[in-house]
Write a structure and sequence with these properties.
58% of the residues lie in helices and 7% in strands. By secondary structure, it is mainly alpha-helical. It has two domains: 8-139, DNA polymerase, domain 1; 156-207, no CATH class. A three-stranded antiparallel β-sheet has the order 1-2-5, with no helix packed on it. Helix 4 packs antiparallel against helix 5 (105-125). It is globular, with a radius of gyration of 22 Å.
């Protein structure tokens, strides 16, 4: 599109810079909008299926445990819900329903952990911008810390529960060296790593 002339070369250069930036940003904006449209409208059952397929580091026992939580607790109550409709009230209603159904505290905690992990994953896809904030504010301070560590440092549940100040090895680096076994509770080595091996989380990116 042809524009009218500019009073100075600086004004013209500034305008063309704006046009260039707008064109450069447009594909990314469209891609984000497409992700939001696709995954936001997706039902929880379908999204959880895709998420489960991506958990390639789980052992056979962990896969059985995950499928049990999904099939017994999560999918019957949340399977048909669209991903962009989750908020803290939905999560609280889910917990209250488990309580009314007589679900034990350990099973409630495990089901909440898996629901939280799946909903935090939506933050990476930008399909529910409010989800992470709502998950972070729906729980007490200990679970808030776990949510921040999982979303900001890419930690698994057990790794987040094993966090300690001694493993902050630089201002922007946390060294992940161990995890908590949520069934038996003791600290143990990281999954798929030998004793003494670790991985570094390069930065905290809390929302």
């Amino acid at each position: 599109m042809e524009e009218s002339g500019f009073a100075t070369q600086d004004a013209a250069a500034e305008r063309w810079t704006e046009i260039y930036k707008a064109k450069k940003a447009a594909p990314r904006g469209r891609a984000k909008a497409e992700r939001i449209a696709r995954y936001g409208a997706m039902r929880f059952e379908e999204y959880a299926g895709e998420w489960k397929a991506g958990q390639r580091d789980l052992g056979s026992a962990s896969v059985v445990h995950l499928e049990s939580l999904l099939n017994i607790h999560l999918l019957p109550l949340l399977g048909s819900r669209r991903m962009n409709t989750f908020d803290h009230k939905v999560v609280e209603g889910f917990l209250q329903t488990m309580e009314r159904n007589g679900v034990g505290l350990a099973a409630q905690a495990n089901a909440f952990d898996k629901l939280k992990a799946i909903l935090l994953d939506t933050n990476r896809l930008d399909c529910s911008p409010e989800t992470l904030r709502q998950i972070r504010t729906a729980s007490d301070d200990s679970l808030l810390l776990v949510a921040d560590l999982m979303s900001g440092c890419g930690m698994r549940n057990g790794e987040a529960f094993a966090v300690n100040l001694d493993n902050i090895v630089a201002d922007d680096v946390y060294r992940i060296t161990e995890q908590v076994n949520r069934t038996t509770c003791p600290y143990e080595r990281l999954k798929h790593r030998k004793v003494g091996e670790y991985r570094d989380a390069p930065e905290f990116r809390t929302a």
